Amino acid sequence: MNKIEEIKQETINQEENTSESIPEQTYKEMSPLRLVLRRFFRSKLSLVGIILIVALFLFSFLGPVVYQKWGEETVDRTQKIQKIETTHTFIDNNGNEITVIQVLEHINEINDYDNPSKEHLLGTDDKGIDIFVRLMYGGRISLTIGFIVVILETLIGILLGGLAGYFGGWVDQLIMRIVDIFNCIPTLPILLIASAMIESWELDPDKNIYILMVIITIFGWSGVARMVRGQILSLREQEYITATEVMGLPIWRKIFKHLIPNVMPQLIVSMTLGLGSVILYESTLSYLGLGVQLPKAAWGTMISTANDPQILNYHMNMWLPAGIMIVIAVLGFNFIGDGLRDAMDPKAKK
């Protein structure tokens, strides 16, 4: 019996050793991309970020297709009777204080300032427009602006940072001084001046969106250029770059075929983290009246209604949902960006 038990125990130990060695072997045989994806999807925060962003995209882009009861600019023309109470106090001939409450009924032509209900899930705003629908369309604009601006910033940063890092010398000095100038520009005063100029032009609200994207891009590309320049400075001394010089490859091919692809992991992380910042930036500008203008919906313009003390205190449904959406978007993109950074450079996490 003892021999049989020893044989069984040896068999179990062999199976355990085999099961432990297989994942280790497959782990070593994984490609770099699979290793990054494996580390990324093991992070709980990364998964939370993906869920948040996917939910936002479904809500913003698929939501209006499914929920077609109200449009982005459709006004609820349902008439409603509003009671307006006024209090009058006076003193009669006997010196007694008498208070009279006068109630006047006013027929409102639109259903404005409506509370959340089955008809309007988040109520209506001051113009009688469904807040839930405007929240979805506002997400479309905010997310679209975020992606377009980040792509433009990255393209400009790759071009100028790549040239500065590869050529060095006076080219590097010139481009880096331009970067320093943009980093030193006082953003808010410039934006206020630009806002006054744009308002005087009386442009179409759709054109304001493009101007907003240009403004954010102008103030955002310098960080990407500095990062690309630093990466290329370290890569251009590698042996494979020396080999391309011996082969006589053209400069544009060395930069965009051999150098930039090796910077892509850092660029992807930078773009992901930048998306949250751009959305927050766009919302701030729209809140200040520099970005998306009515009747177009944007999360920033929806929050700007809180400038009215009455709306701030008594109609939180008009501005609070947009604020929650901005928080979700920024957190989601930051979680994904942090997860990608840790997955690509696990030593940095430690």
Characterization of the model:
70% of the residues lie in helices and 7% in strands. 30% of the residues are buried. The protein has 14 helices and two strands. The model is unreliable at 18-27 (pLDDT under 50). It is elongated. α10 runs antiparallel to α13 (320-344). It has a domain at 131-349: Orthogonal Bundle (MetI-like fold).
List the helices and strands and how they pair.
Layout: H1 2-29, H2 32-42, H3 44-66, E1 80-91, E2 97-108, H4 131-167, H5 169-184, H6 187-201, H7 205-218, H8 221-235, H9 239-247, H10 251-287, H11 299-303, H12 309-314, H13 320-344, H14 346-349
Antiparallel strand pairs: 1-2
DSSP E strands, number: 2
What's the CATH architecture name of the domain at 131-349? Orthogonal Bundle
- CATH homologous superfamily identity of the domain at 131-349: MetI-like
**Distance, first to last CA:** 50 Å
Number of distinct helices: 14
Strands of the widest sheet, in order across it, are: 1-2
The chain-level mean pLDDT equals: 80
CATH top level of the domain at 131-349 is Mainly Alpha
Taken from the alpha-carbon principal axes, the silhouette is elongated
Q: Any idea what the radius of gyration is? A: 30 Å
Q: What amount of the residues lies in strands?
A: 5-15%
Alpha-beta content class: mainly alpha
Question: Roughly what percent helix?
Answer: over 70%
- List the secondary-structure elements in sequence, H or E: HHHEEHHHHHHHHHHH
pLDDT < 50 runs, ≥5 residues: 18-27
CATH topology of the domain at 131-349: MetI-like fold
Characterize the biggest β-sheet: 2 strands, antiparallel
